[in-house]
Amino acid sequence: MSTQTPPRYPFAWTPPMQVPEALRTVHKTSAIEVTLPSGDVATLVTRYKDVRALFADKRLSRNIARPDCARISKDNDLFMDPNIDPDPPEHTRVRSLVTKAFTARRIEALRPYVQQVADQLLDEMAAGPQPVELNEALAFPLPIMVICKLLGVPPEDRDQFRAYVDGFLSVTKLAPEEVGKCRQNLWKYLGDLIDSKRENPGDDLVSELIRVRDDEDDSRLNEHELHFWTQGLLIAGYVTTASQIGTGTAVLLHHPEFVRAIQADWSLVPSTVEELLRTQIMGSSVGTMRYAIDDIPLSDGSVIKKGTSVLLSEEGANMDPEVFDCPFELDIRRKENHHMTFGAGLHYCVGAALARMELQVATESLLRRFPDIRLAAPAEELPRALGGFMEGFTEIPVEW
Amino acid sequence: MRVTANSDTCAVSSLCVYRVPGVFDQDEDGLVLVLDESPAEALHEEIRRAARGCPTKSIRVVEESAAEGAVELARGDAG
User: pLDDT-based confidence at A324, cuts 50/70/90?
Assistant: First the structure.
């Protein structure tokens, strides 16, 4: 038995375009212990088979507001709200209120708007000097505009809440008091938004949730839940997609042969987007924190003990050689690509279809508009976000 | 091939609707609907992929072969 400190998690993507060595060897066992930025130890489940099964396993609670559950950050109570129960039946009740906004039909109805925003951003990009920083020009504004539209947030507020959200998702980046300030400001902002929607309801998701809150009996959605889930949708609908647009594009531009292939056959865009999601170079799985409320056997015969804090390694599952041929290679033509980036089971990312659509529109529009687009700096020198929930590239200079 | 789906466990991923739109659809709440329970053979492979890819394993495919009778495909893995 080793007395060494378990390896640090998230695994560092250095150099930036290479799969970390730890991830290449992580499938030898079903689970390993890791040390989180907080210093707490959690069990990281590594194989596709186990990760997929455990995402749907009721013996793993998503309620991590427990005194003995590992914390992601010691400076930030990320996702630990004792007033919210993200397990069924409470979770199911809330989730069913929002899923109807994310059906394939509704997402497709949004596609022309997303295209219009993308075209407008690319126009502005073309009109300015080169090189252009892609996060600021496209990757962040696009999903912000879309989530504003969906939730009914005034677009002029977007810079303000972007700053709050950045603080909200700090792991070690900001001091605790800064994090606290951002969280308070975001909560107050949402309160004002909800008040104004209550007075002037619109055709948007927040107005719809308020209607459910106010019209139905109190068992439907209480005021705190209304706040909490609006905040969740706002954050989840923006930061994740933004990071993936920027980082995925950087990875793609690092492979000009794939860019040429897509420009010769635009039907490759969806499978390219899926492959960039699979290799999800921009993030780790710290957001999958669970707590075992019973003993759970894994596929290699080991057992997760009741009371263990568990992370489900989406990136481990996505690079499991048992499931994916050449798992560490980017293959934009990959046919069978049931990656775990959006999770699985009853917590499957409610915004997955929206994210996919935005990623497809952003990727295709950019490569059509700028046929010769390329990175304006060596890929190895692109800086990464450290100490935040998302670890994508913070600066992606491009030219054409 | 016979295709059925369990809307009680559906998590509204929309993956099946995008993959085989003529066979799968969603109701007002986003829950899965099967439009064609006995789809044409040309669609079978895509439907099997959709079933394997469903995040909640809510799609059930029963293969009907003359030699073996009805054989249900395992829904467990995405391999």
Answer: very high
Contact between A9 and A34 (Cβ < 8 Å): yes
SS (H, E, C) A334-375: CCCCCCCCCCCHHHCCCCHHHHHHHHHHHHHHHHHHCCCCEE
Which is nearest to A227 in space by CA: A198, A263, A261? A198
Q: Which of B29, B56, B79 sits opposite A346 (nearest CB)?
A: B56
H/E stretch holding A252 reads: helix A239-253
Phi, psi of A70 (to 5 degrees): -60, 145
Query: What CA–CA distance (Å, rounded) separates A377 from A99?
Result: 41
Choose among A383, A287, A400, A379: nearest CA to A18: A379
Residue B4 pairs with which residues in a beta bridge?
Answer: B60
Amino acid at A122: L
Sequence letter at residue A207: S
Using the Cα atoms of residue A372, residue A376, residue A381 and residue A386 in order, give the sign of their dihedral: negative
* pLDDT score for B73: 56
Q: Which of A395, A288, A382 is nearest to A13 (CA)?
A: A382
Q: How many CA atoms lie within 13 A of B53 on its CB side?
A: 23
- Is A94 an interface residue toward B (CB < 8 Å)? no
Degrees to nearest 5, angle at CA A207 with A204 and A209:
105
CB B26 within 8 A of CB B32: yes
Local structure of A332: helix, strand or coil:
coil
Evaluate if residue B77 carries a pLDDT over 50: no
Contact B14/A342, CB-based, under 8 Å? no
Which residue in the set B14, B17, B79 is minimally distant from A323, CB to CB? B79
